[in-house]
Structure formats: structure tokens, C-alpha cells
Design brief:
The protein has one helix at about 1-79. It is mainly alpha-helical. It has one domain. The longest helix is centred in the middle third of the chain and has 77 residues, at about 1-79. It starts with a helix and ends with a helix.
Length: about 80
Amino acid sequence: MKMRQSFADWEQAFVKEVTLDRRRRASLARTTEQRAAKREAQKRQKRGSVRFALLVLTLIMTAVIVTVVMFRTLYLLLG
């Protein structure tokens, strides 16, 4: 009887350990997915900021070039 009781206890402990291990794995998987999603969002944000900076720089350079060409053309026409 004692042997059966200890075997049942051992089996019950094993089942508890398996259950805890599954929960830990599920928790780790969720944490990993959350980190990956967070990193992806940060990358997207950084790329968006860089693209916006390039857009602003392009607009400013276009305005400068158009202004310089316009004044040179005006100088040639009136000069």
C-alpha cells in the first residue's frame, strides 16, 4: 500500500511539474512575441522618422535650388 501511495504521489508531482512547465513555456512564448512586436514597432518608428527627415531636407533643397536658379535667370535677363 505504501508503495502505491508513493507512486501516486510521485505521479501527481510529475503531472504538476509538467503543467508548470507548459505554463512557463506559454509565458515565455508570449513574452518573446511581445518583444518582437515591440522591436518591430520601434524599427517602423525609426524608419518613419528618417523618411520624414529626408522628405523635409528634399523640400528645403528644392526650394533653395529653385530660388537660386530663379535669381540667376532674372539677373541674366535684366543684366
